[in-house]
Design goal:
By secondary structure, the chain is mainly alpha-helical. About 70% of the residues lie in helices and about 10% in strands. The chain contains five helices and two strands, in the order H-H-H-H-E-E-H.
Length: about 120
């Protein structure tokens, strides 16, 4: 079971690394607003060179956050939200459930004191 676990952690680490950079998050935001953009369209919204945007897109592709589809000579970039959702379920969801349970317990305790 170890090899699958290692692969999973490598994938999770790649997503966190990709999301850690503000420029890459800006690229993902642009794709969220209007999916299926070319490199030139993405560059138009950012204050960086085409080479820098390309480098960021390659890292996002490696993290499976961006997928590419070729339409003729155009290379279109699409957001893949699945890795973010999986991290949300794995990390945020379980802690959100704990916080929600504590909040309900606190409310119940306050109502018991009032009643």
């Amino acid at each position: 079971m170890q090899p699958n676990s290692c692969i999973l952690w490598r994938e999770v680490n790649a997503v966190f690394k990709a999301l850690a950079d503000e420029s890459r998050r800006a690229l993902l935001d642009q794709l969220h607003k209007n999916n299926g953009r070319t490199l030139g369209e993405l560059c138009g919204h950012l204050d960086m060179t085409r080479q820098a945007v390309t480098k960021h897109l390659l890292l996002l592709e490696a993290a499976n956050l961006v997928t590419v589809v070729w339409r003729g000579r155009k290379k279109l970039h699409y957001l893949n939200p699945v890795p973010i959702y999986e991290i949300s379920e794995r990390w945020i969801g379980k802690y959100d459930a704990i916080a929600s349970k504590r909040w309900r317990s606190q409310k119940s305790l306050e109502q018991t004191k009032k009643g």
